[in-house]
Amino acid sequence: MANFRGRGSARYFSILPAFLFLALLSALPLFNLFALSFAEVSWSGGQSTWTWVGLNNYLALGSDALFKAGILNTVILVGVATTAQVTIGLMLALACSRVGRRSRIYRTLFLLPILIPGIIIGAIWRLMYNYQFGVVNQIIDLVGLGPVDWLGSSSLALMSVIIVDIWHWTPFSFLLLLAAVEALPRDVSEAAQIDGASKWTEFRRISLPLLWPAIFTTFVFRAIIAFKVFDEVYLLTGGGPGTATEVISFTIYQRFFTQDNPGYGSAMSVTVIFIIAAVIAVAMTRQRSRSQ
Amino acid sequence: MSTRRKQNLSVDRALLGFLFLAAVLTIGPFLWIALASFKTQIALLMGTVKFTPVSMNYDEVLFGNTSTFARNFLNSVLVASASTMAAMTIGFLAGYSLLRLRWPAWVVNLFLLWAVVFNLVPPVTLAGAWYELFRGIGLSNDTVALILAHTTLHLPMALWLLSSFLREIPRELEEAAFIDGASFVKTLWRVVIPIMMPGLVSTGILVFIFSWNEFPVALALTNNTSATVPVGIAKFAQENEIKYTQMAAASVLSAIPALLALLFGQRYIVKGLTAGAVK
Amino acid sequence: MMATLTIQSLRKSFGAVEVLHGLDADIQDGEFIAILGESGCGKSTLLRIIAGLEDTTSGSICIDGTDVTQQSPRDRDIAMVFQSYALYPHMTVRQNIDFPLELMGIDKADRAGRIAETANLLNLTPYLDRKPRDLSGGQRQRVAMGRAIVREPKVFLFDEPLSNLDAKLRVQMRSEIRNLQQRLKVTAIYVTHDQVEALTMADRVMLMNKGKIEQFAPPLELYDHPASVFVAGFVGSPAMNLVEGEVRDRNRIMALGAEFPYAGTGAGEVTVGIRPEHVRIAEPGAALFSGRLMSSENTGDRLNLLLDVAGEAFRVSLNERLQLAPGDSVPLSVPDDCLHVFDRATGKRI
To answer: Which class in CATH covers the domain with range C238-343?
Structure first.
């Protein structure tokens, strides 16, 4: 092959493996998942039989208390945790940016929770939340409170999970927002100061609007990840007590693997994927119309 | 002027205090769990502050007869290394191809759309689908299945990150190499790859860590002998409800890759995490 | 190591847009050719096609009589200096220069000799073990040259190599490149948008406009006998005055509200070109035409006037100092042989 651009067969060989993974391991299973959501699967002698049940799986979702609890708890967790993470993350980012070099050690330390396996975070906090010897109760004992059953009480359990999620993922918001804060054009804020703007006015009228796209992106990014929350909940509460911390990933997991009901689990998965896609589509359109 | 400077100084001091508090809250749990891992069960339950450190928790976790931790650890190393290698190689080739080899726009968009949409899908839903798929085609080796699954799971991220790093390399460098007489493979090997080494390291560290940490898919696709560290820990926590100090020791051990990455590759991690989201 | 280069009815399209409309050119052994034109005229595309970095849509490129149209760059025996220099940032100067030699499969001792020779020629010897980022702009430019000449290629290609340098260094590098090329006697093709570079460096200049060659001739010919209105307007600074005119009775041209004697073959509506530097202040009574001074600028060696002549803006460049005030009426004349006449419809020289 003569030319530089086409590079003949290399062009096809370079994309082929990615294409195979895309087609066989993500498109095909997702398609399969979609098909499965209209069926019921029974196993006999290592052979599976699909029985088409039409929309029955989807119709059953409406009256499934676990599914409703899962969606509700997940939405609460996503809303509260993400808002807190973005707010605290922004404060930390602004603080780090302001104090400059002296914040280097903190920038490193804040990375740690992002890198630790979620399941370990669950394990750590499960011990910290422990009724008898957990450090959380030891601390509130110092001020004469407690002990509190953080994970066992159905009114507190979800909040305890949310606290862990905030602790786990605030650093990630911080990191993304720090990049945005550091990229703010210096001359604009200097111009504002020369124009006589106070620090607060300058922040509210200049910096915040400039940061808004980054804040939005961080929020969406975090919300997407938060919606998938599974690892921490698995060890902290296992969805309990009752359905107090039942999150949607957990509900789906149980349908597939605990109850071996893939048809119903698939219908749930497909519904969740559509909900996420719809929410993001709406958020994106609103953000776009806002920035225009 | 001097009052203003004083004011600035006190603001800075307040901010440093705020950062210090945040750092304590961040590191505290790790310190607490690290301390717990050196305590005896009784010392932990009593809430003793002063204690004599013991290594029995680590001995038990690593070498105990009933402990599967060492095996879990090896499984994790195998799965994370193999899937990182695979995702990086496949992602690099695809990213290079899409950016440089003149594919029609719809092909490029298809892959980018995939990389974005795939991130919306909760891994748990895929875990179910993969489980059905691998069961359907009779793939009996859990480790191979998990490597394939993790490669698929992290390929979009690798593709996305590597593309953004590739985009920073001027095309002219490749053209210069080509005119200097380098073949396609030589251009990649001698020019493109060395220049984007920092980006490759960033991507590699992140994919490895993410694969190491991944839980729901590993939980779905593995059994007792093929379980990875997170799965092992989860099972351990459920089955040995009260062996708190051993759980602490296992937690500390499974954070090792994260700690190593943080110690030696902090710069690369920041680069990778921000490149992925901002671009 | 000399080579001729022949371009035959070369066409290039990107999608539905044709950017090169059938080019033909013959380039001789050891010639220094400048391809001159504004950005977007297709000059860089032409160079990249010669290099083999772009395909042709149709037509052919021959180097030394061999058709290389289907050959990859590395089989064409060419070297190229890029606008950004494209130095490999992870390699030292030595490694940068060595890279093409290594790929040619030359053994190590020979390579070391050639690197030393090249470095010596370009005054790069003290910098051989530095990385490109530790060099100044001029030094980087020399490394890029070194990487090109060390291979002793048949043809040198330059893509605006001086545009990233400051003005002073540019003038210096201009003569360095020219001297080097003459010493090595290698055919060179040099793309630039800077007419001073093209006119001072090249043996012949290929002036391109909208994917076509307007004129391919020695620099002075471009200046003295521009083949078209475009060439006339492009070459020379300040630019040639181009005004509408009409040939009457085959012996005079009516333009600028005046009458100019004419001995050429043109007829009817024409475009008349007059270089500002060919206009003179006329003695009283000998004026062909006159203008009203609108503004003037003095650069020390020249006095540039902007005049209103019969309602048209008209530039004059003099090498004498005069005391003039805006609004003054200035009597002007032009030598007969300094009139350039172009067909108004085709823009071609008559």
So the answer is: mainly beta
DSSP string covering A225-251: HHHT--HHHHHHTTT-STTTT--HHHH
SS3 content of chain A, % helix, strand, coil (to 5): 75, 5, 25
Candidates A22, A115, A254, A271, partner chain B, best to mutate (most B CBs within 10 A): A115
Residues A25 and A50 in one domain: yes
For the stretch B110-126, pLDDT in tens is 888 888 778 778 888 88
Q: Are residues A267 and A279 in the same domain?
A: yes
A38, A70: one domain: no
Residue B181 φ then ψ, to 5°? 105, 10
Give the contacts of C144 (CB within 8 A, at least 6 positions apart).
Answer: C81, C82, C85, C86, C87, C161
Residue A14 and residue A81 in one domain: no
Whether A90 and A233 map to the same domain: the answer is yes
B188 contact residues in A (CB cutoff 8 A): none
CATH code of the domain occupying B65-278: 1.10.3720.10
Of the candidate CATH numbers 3.90.1300.10, 3.20.20.100, 3.40.50.300, 3.40.50.10190, the domain formed by C5-233 belongs to: 3.40.50.300
Ranges of each domain in chain C? 5-233, 238-343
Q: Give residue-wise pLDDT tens across range A156-198.
A: 899 999 999 999 999 989 988 988 888 888 777 778 778 877 7
pLDDT in the model for residue A203: 80
The single-letter code of the amino acid at C216 is F
Q: Percent helix, strand and coil across chain C, each rounded to 5?
A: 30, 35, 35
Looking at the structure, tell me whether residues A173 and A247 fall in a common domain: yes
Please report whether residue A31 resides in a domain: yes
Tell me which of C61, C71, C72, C80 to substitute to probe the interface with A (most A C-beta atoms closer than 10 Å).
Answer: C72
Q: What is the pLDDT of residue C32?
A: 95
Please report whether residue A1 resides in a domain. no
Nearest CA in chain A to C56: A3
Does A111 reside within a domain? yes
Nearest to B122 among A179, A228, A257 (CB): A228
The CA distance from A172 to C236, in Å, is 60
Give the amino acid at B51. Answer: F
Tens-digit pLDDT profile for residues C25-75 = 999 999 999 999 998 899 999 999 999 998 899 999 999 988 999 888 888
- For chain B, give every domain's residue range: 2-56, 65-278
Q: Which of C88, C104, C140, C158 should one mutate to test binding to chain B, selecting the residue with the greatest count of B CBs within 10 A?
A: C88
Contact A3 C52 (CB under 8 A): yes
Residue from B189, B160, B13 nearest B94 by CA: B160
Q: In this complex, how many residue pairs, one in chain B and one in chain C, have their CB atoms less than 8 Å apart?
A: 57
- Residue range of the domain that includes A41: 8-56
CB < 8 Å from B in window 136-195 of A:
138, 167, 171-172, 175-176, 179-180
Number of domains in chain A: 2
Tally Cβ neighbours within 10 Å of residue A25.
Answer: 21
CB proximity B93 to A under 8 Å: yes
The ipTM is 0.85
Nearest to A108 among B12, B129, B262 (CB): B262
* A213 and A168 together in one domain: yes
In this structure, are A39 and A65 located in the same domain? no
Contact B266/A234, CB-based, under 8 Å?
no
Which of C52, C86, C104 comes nearest B176 by C-beta?
Answer: C86
Which CATH number belongs to the domain containing residue A187 in this structure? Answer: 1.10.3720.10
Q: What is the mean pLDDT of chain C?
A: 91
In a domain, A145, yes or no: yes
